[in-house]
Amino acid sequence: MNKLACLSGRFGRPGIVFIGVAALWWLITRYGAFLGAETRRDQILLLILLSLGLLFVCYLPVMKKYVQELTYRRRARKEQRLPDDEERLAQTPPRYVTVQDIRHTLRRQYGRFWGRKIRILLITGTASEVELLTPGLTEQFWQEEQGTLLLWGGDPSQPENADWLAALRRLRYRPADGIVWVTSGLSETLSAPLTEDALDRVSRAVSSCCERLGWRLPLYVWSLQESPDERGRITQPVGCLLPAECSSDKLKAQLQAMLPGLVAQGIQQICCAPRYYFLLSLAERFRRNIDAVVEPLSVLLRPYRQLLLAGIVFSPATVGGERSVRHRWRMDNRWEALPETVQQLPVRLQPSRTGHNWRRSLAVMAAILMMAQGTGMVVSFLANRSLVAEVQEQIRPAQNQQLSPAERLQALLNLQKSLARLQYREEHGAPWYLRAGMNQNADLLVVVMPLYAQNAHLLLRDAAAAHLEQQLRTFIRLPPDSPQRGKMAKAAYDQLRLYLMLAQPQHMEPAWFSRTLMREWPQRDGVSAVFWQANGPTLLAYYASGIITHPQWKLTADEELVSQSRTLLLRHLGTQNSDAMLYQKMLARVAHQFADMRLTDMTGDTDVSRLFFTDEVVPGMFTRQAWEEAVLPSIDTVINERREEMDWVLTDGRQKAPSPVSPEALRQRLTTRYFADFGNAWLNFLNSLHLRKAQMLSDVTEQLTLMADVRQSPLVALMNTLAVQGRTGQPREAVTDSLVKSARNLLSQEKQPVAVPESRLHGPLATTFGPVLALMDNQNNSADMLNLQTYLTRVTQVRLRLQQIAGSSDPQAMMQMLAQTVLQGKSVDLTDTRDYGSLTAAGLGQEWYGFGQTVFVRPMEQAWQQVLTPAAESLNARWRTAVVDGWNNAFSGRYPFKNVSSDASLPLLAKYLNTDTGRIARFLQNNLSGVLHREGSRWVPDTINTRGLTFNPAFLKAINTLSEIADVAFTTGNAGLHFELRPGTAAGVMQTTLITDNQKLIYVNQMPVWKRFTWPADTEAPGASLSWVSTQAGTRQYADLPGSWGLIRLLEMARRKAAPGVASGWSLSWQAQDGRMLNYTLRTEAGEGPLVLLKLRNFVLPETVFELSGTSAFTGNDEDAGDTVEETD
Fold first, then answer.
1. How does pLDDT run across 284-325, given as a tens digit for each residue?
2. How many CB atoms lie under 10 A from the CB of residue 881?
3. For position 746, what pLDDT does the model report?
4. What is the C-alpha to C-alpha distance for residues 919 and 891, in angstroms, rounded to an integer?
5. What is the Cα 213 distance to its own chain's centre?
6. Which of 192, 381, 700, 1097 is most buried, most CB within 10 Å of its CB?
7. Which runs of E-coded beta strand occur in 348-401?
8. Could you tell me where the DSSP H helices lie in 631-763?
9. 992-1024 as b/e: b if 16+ CB within 10 A
10. CA 702 from centroid of its chain's CA atoms
């Protein structure tokens, strides 16, 4: 019995509780402060709580047993195993109560760890057979002797006792070490031989028992054999243990191996008494018919049965085994055949849990965790050792004054990176491979930081201070009247600020410090420019961040130098250098406080998407709300901060620095900048508006209806928003005056004079928003003033006209009639409104160009385009019918339009080209006078009336070409022109003769003179010819071209170029068949003379006036409309 059991027996649970309470009180009074129990009252409360917990733990088994007894009694009454009115009847103890008795008995006998000191065997078989082996076990359920506990496992042929097996599962972690199946079926005389059905029942019963217990247990077969009364015989273990995966052959071999021992021991026993022949009879049976034992057992060895058959024991029935003491049995040598511990069995036959073995898994996990912890400690040790060694290697070169500045700075940079890494790990945690109880991050940081500071002071702080002091002294030494002082004032201010940041760490700004110091110190002595520019900002920024948290690093400043610098800077420092910085600082404060303003936000509940769209937005900081709620206070805040900034930089705090410019002037400059950006933001947004494209006339009508509806118009809502936003920043006095004036106007009986629009808008945005807000001035109805209400009224008129057209019986015809009216140069409501919108847009000025075009011009252009598009199709068809078809019938396939022998009729061509009465001119004047007008000899489109239409460029080029020809060759109505020719000399040519319409020019190398020609001349044989006489041959003809166009054909064959020194002159050269040149000079009276008719070569008259697929109007500025005479070789 162990000490704890003795203590419990002497003093009981109250003694244990008393000792525990005393121990708790000692611990609380000694270590209570660590738990927060510092006062006596807190200590007593803590003692009471812990004592209650101790009482609960000590008396938990008693309460558990009491609850179990009540539960069993209630269940017994429900099952009518106990009469309700009789308490004295004997009851069968509940299974869990029996198991509790077993546990208490074994604990008293073997101590608290009794489970490791005994062997538990579960005996199964028929009750009669089990009684032959262990008398009384089936009634007592358990018996114990010499460290072996036998438990009754039930009859395999009967239903299993589930309650008993469930209770046994709580007996110990492993409820049993094995199952012993007692059977006489292997005997020749005690019972009938075992059949396969009987063995199946036994197998299922054993498997079910194992499942109930939660363990797969080894199975031992105990075979009872017939034997006479052998009282007094020395018993011995008779049996064998089987290997894992035993087969029938192995079992047979095991049994045969027992024969020598059985025979030897049997002879010894029979010599003592002839009746002790059990061993010899068993050996005889094995020798005679061993298969009678092997075959039944081989059924249990089949793999699919999953039984752990571990051994077989042979013995006669127990004689004289009864004991007078309950739960005791007489243990003899026969039980030594079974192993003392399960470890003596093969691994595969040892007990194992069914299902998942959590205990083994936990053990494996614990082993893995221990290995991981060990590995982690080793890795952590190596990593921390490497880190310490690395830092040591970085410190040495930084402290070595024998090295160059560049090498020391590189070492300081490496050390700085290590420190930054250590600080990051200190804040966010070290990596996993540095932990595991070996983390030296904090200790290393404490040791290395002073070493870094020692080297950084020398290499960074002192060097930077020396450079800044030198620059400041240079600034101080400048002559008082030197213009350099004004130029260097801002740089000197930054240098003084940098210097004071080193001396006053509370004002340090690391980002600004490193950036500005690098600008002031771009080159360092002894260090390459590449290295310093690449690594200097990092070194300085880290040191600047460190000096904030370590004020003891501060520099001892030269007070005299600081005082002199402040005095000079206060005289020369101008505010213009800091305005931009202050303005950006102010904007950064309010940039994210207000949402961006979109088009839908400006138009309220109106359906603006049907009319206008844009992807741009107005930043939220450029709204009236932002100005009143955030920007105005932010300007005051920035001004105060600037005053404070100048105080600490330019003064020592004891006297106020005289500000070069008053805060009011600075406020005015910041306000002016803000409203300039305010206006630009709104201009950019409004100029980015686009008109939603309408595909049909009904879409245009809907857009105009929506635009002109005062209650639902997005345009009116947008203009109202602009009226509110445009008065941002307007003084409250002006608003009050405006309200007072409005009240006076209402109360006054006399007519008030018209107010000037500028008088209504007094504020910083008057210049920007003034033109737009002037449009909303409905009080001024003079003819010279434009306003939004008049425009919307005109839009309503256009909408009504379009609705009238759409509702007519023939909308197409009415639209064509309306368009034709405009094309003919007559004015209608649509064009008047379009012109009014264009005038309104132009009145807004160039800054509002995009907005004016989208709002006032493009809606009318879009409506005009819907009207003009059908008219353009009709006009194209009329052009083809009236001009093109007749032109093609008359001239296609004739010279000069084609290179053929038949000539075009000159009188008929004159009917088309006549400037006043020609068919083309009459068509243009009658049908296109409103969109096309003549300037000189060129037809130019009207850029206003043609908006929405696109002239065919080929059409314009063609009519301008024909107009140019008509002005030269058809000036009198019929074809006719005059020109002069002068022959020229050529090598090897003695005479040339040129004849055109019987007009001759003969040249025999005398002094050349001009000869006048008329084309076409009145003759019966029109035509042209050219011949020559060379020095080596007689007269030869170059060409003989009959017909009215003979001269033009001859000119086409010549090489033409402008004649130098001759006004309106052209050099003509024909290369004769013998290679000689026949030269003449042409002088015209108008234009290009007869050469202009060459433009008719391959000329085709376009079939369309307008391009229906285009969207942009032709401006009439096409420089290629008229051709120039081509220079040919």
1. 888 988 888 888 888 888 877 778 899 999 988 887 667 778
2. 10
3. 38
4. 14
5. 58
6. 700
7. 352-353
8. 632-650, 663-687, 697-708, 714-725, 732-747, 757-760
9. bbbbbbebebebeeeebeebebebbeeeeebbb
10. 41
pLDDT digits (tens, 9 = 90+) for 255-280: 999 999 889 988 988 888 888 888 88
Q: 179 pairs with which residues across the strands?
A: 122, 219
Give the tens place of pLDDT for each residue, 660-696.
Answer: 456 777 788 889 999 999 999 999 999 999 999 888 8
Q: In this structure, which amino acid lies at residue 465?
A: A
What 3-state DSSP class applies to 314? Answer: strand
Q: How far apart are CA 472 and CA 451, in angstroms?
A: 30
**Is there a contact between 134 and 143 (Cβ–Cβ < 8 Å)?**
yes
Cα distance between residue 914 and residue 932, in whole Å: 18
Domain residue spans of the chain: 3-58, 118-340, 366-572, 574-688, 696-738+758-891, 899-1129
Q: Residue 398 and residue 409: Cα distance in Å, rounded? A: 7
Helix (H, G, I), strand (E, B) or coil at 1102: coil
DSSP letters spanning 533-547 = HHHHHHHHHHHHHHH
Q: Is residue 1128 predicted with pLDDT exceeding 50?
A: no
**CA–CA separation, 561 and 469 (whole Å):** 8
Helix (H/G/I), strand (E/B), else coil: 271: helix
Non-local (6+) Cβ contacts of 651 within 8 A are 566, 657
CA distance 460 to 789: 71
- Listed in sequence order, the residues at least 6 apart from 537 whose beta carbon sits closer than 8 Å to its beta carbon are 514, 515, 518
Residue 954, pLDDT above cutoff 90: yes
Least Cα distance to 1097 among 891, 788, 957 occurs for: 891
Residue 344: count other Cβ atoms within 10 Å of its Cβ.
12
Report residue 262 as tokens. Answer: 């059985």
Residue 879 and residue 924: Cα distance in Å, rounded?
Answer: 9
Q: Tell me how far CA of residue 459 lies from CA of 64, 404, 466, 609, 1068, in angstroms.
A: 78, 11, 11, 65, 89
What 3 state SS string does 157-199 have? CCCCCHHHHHHHCCCCCCCCCEEEEEECCCCCCCCCCCCHHHH
Beta bridge partners of 989: 1030
Q: Tokens 């807190």 identify what position?
A: 42
**Dihedral angle computed from the Cα positions of residues 437, 442, 447 and 449, in that order, rounded to the nearest 10 degrees:** 150
Whether 747 shows a pLDDT value over 50: the answer reads: no
Give the C-alpha separation, 715 to 138, whole Å: 105
Question: What is the total residue count of the chain?
Answer: 1129
Residues near 494 by Cβ (< 8 Å), separated by ≥ 6? 516, 520
Question: Which residues neighbour 1057 within 8 Å (Cβ) at sequence distance 6 or greater?
Answer: 1066, 1067, 1127, 1128
- In whole angstroms, what is the distance from residue 185 CA to residue 188 CA? 8
Residue 280 three-state SS: helix
Please give the distance of CA 368 from its chain centroid, rounded to a whole number.
41
- Report how far residue 769's alpha carbon sits from residue 726's, in angstroms, rounded to the nearest whole number: 6
Angstrom distances, CA of residue 749 to CA of 742, 743, 745, 746, 990:
13, 12, 8, 8, 106
Identity of the amino acid at 954: A
Of residues 867, 875, 822, the one with CA closest to residue 1104: 875
Q: Are 314 and 225 in contact (CB under 8 A)?
A: yes
- Amino acid (one-letter) located at 1049: R
Q: Which residues pair with 994 in a beta bridge?
A: 1001, 1026
Tens-digit pLDDT profile for residues 577-620: 467 778 888 888 898 899 999 999 999 888 888 999 999 999 99
Check: CB of residue 1059 under 8 Å from CB of residue 1081. yes
- Tell me which DSSP letter residue 881 carries: I
Are 201 and 157 a contacting pair, CB within 8 Å? yes
**Three-state secondary structure string covering 934-955:** EECCEEEECCCCCCCCCECHHH
In terms of phi and psi (left: phi > 0; alpha: psi -120 to 50; beta: otherwise), the region of 215 is beta
